[in-house]
Design a protein that fits this description.
With about 400 residues, the protein is an alpha+beta fold. Helices cover about 20% and strands about 35% of the residues.
Length: about 400
């Protein structure tokens, strides 16, 4: 089954230039009193701090551009706002509203030990990943997670009201994630989650830091971030990317995943012939035919400028087929079409959530708003391979 993943995250748009500072004061809207120890950070970046006892904060070393600022503290609603930084420092006065309605929680402590173990293991696989980096990742505070199973445990949902802290010792980051919701559907392989995240550098000696830099570069090159940065600079070819159009024709003889699973559940332990039939049906491709365009697409075929400075749109019909020629694909994807002459390069199929509006992204290579749907290489990318939006890579790989 092809792995699908959709992420809905609030990402900042960053333009690389000189350093600027953002400062301000955080107070309660109800009491007007300053709020100390509130977390202030730019989503998906390594820029963050905590407010002083008098509620003040400062973020140094920023570049001009558009950011999503997040402020959170216990007992108050999360505050988010888009800030536009030009060449002048920015000063903010932020008032947080007290929480009026507490969300109904389904805490992991209410699950049986077996269900808790199953939920946490599935969450680790789908959220953190199963690659080599994932083995060096550790959830520091799993107790903040709230889980629930649905539909005979085929759907897992999770959320947290406090920072979920994951230490990635493969890339050298401590990641703090405010997970609004997480949903994993076992039948379709679809994973959807929303939230805000902040990256901190783990302490280490120089030798370890050098290893981390190499691993970060490995995670960056060939990633979606790398692709979008190369797309807006019209440097796909030199970066190692090829793009094609893809048309798919559904297999009319293959039932939906839900129908197949229903028959498999009924046949287990009862009818061997029926079980084998539906097992074989599950392995059958969803598509009767997949047709790749004979010629590569050019950047101008899919890239559109918007009326917002620093924002671009990707637009295409059907599917976009992306090949990265400087890495081999280590995984097998049943429904991922392979042209005979394209070898086993890392490949991703992109489909848009809205073909009329396309997908917006910024100069830093991050998607703004709704992410497209990824199948193949990028669909396997999890927290174990993620790097902050302000990351600058080293020399590209050679092949």
């Amino acid at each position: 089954m092809a792995r699908l993943i959709v992420l809905f995250l609030l990402f900042p748009a960053i333009i690389f230039a000189q350093n600027i500072a953002v400062s301000g004061k955080v107070s309660g809207a109800d009491t007007k009193a300053p709020l100390g120890r509130a977390s202030v950070f730019l989503s998906n970046s390594s820029f963050g701090t905590s407010t002083a006892p008098d509620g003040t904060f400062i973020l140094n070393g920023l570049k001009p551009g558009q950011y999503n600022l997040v402020v959170t503290t216990v007992g108050y609603e999360e505050h988010t706002e888009t800030i536009l930084i030009t060449n002048d420092p920015v000063k903010l006065n932020i008032e947080l509203s007290p929480k009026s309605v507490q969300l109904k929680e389904v805490n992991i402590s209410t699950l049986s030990k077996a269900d808790l173990k199953m939920a946490l293991e599935q969450f680790k696989q789908e959220f953190i990943g199963e690659d080599e980096n994932a083995r060096d990742c550790k959830i520091i505070n799993p107790e903040v997670l709230n889980f629930s199973f649905h539909q005979n445990k085929n759907v897992l949902e999770a959320y947290n009201n406090d920072f979920l802290i994951v230490e990635n010792h493969a890339l050298g980051y401590r990641i703090k994630f405010l997970l609004k919701n997480f949903k994993s559907e076992r039948l379709t392989g679809r994973v959807v989650y929303t939230g805000q995240r902040f990256f901190e550098e783990l302490p280490a000696k120089d030798a370890q830091k050098k290893k981390w830099l190499k691993n970060r570069d490995d995670a960056y090159y060939g990633s979606a971030m790398h692709f979008y940065r190369a797309l807006y600079t019209d440097s796909l070819a030199s970066a190692g990317f090829k793009i094609y159009g893809l048309t798919r024709i559904l297999n009319p003889n293959r039932p939906t995943e839900e129908v197949i699973q229903q028959h498999l559940n009924k046949a287990k332990g009862l009818q061997l012939d029926s079980f084998l039939y539906w097992t074989n049906m599950k392995q059958t491709s969803r598509y009767k035919n997949q047709i790749l365009s004979s010629d590569q697409l050019a950047v101008k075929d899919i890239l559109r400028r918007t009326n917002q400075p620093g924002l671009f749109a990707v637009m295409f019909t059907d599917y976009l087929y992306v090949i990265y020629t400087k890495k081999w694909e280590a995984n097998y994807f049943k429904d991922l079409y392979r042209a005979p002459d394209n070898l086993n390069y890392a490949t991703t199929i992109i489909s848009l959530m809205n073909n009329n509006q396309g997908t917006l992204f910024d100069r830093n290579g991050t998607v703004i708003g709704d992410s497209p749907l990824y199948e193949g290489t990028w669909a396997n990318a999890r927290l174990s391979e993620m790097i902050p939006v302000d990351y600058t890579p080293g020399a590209p790989p050679n092949r």
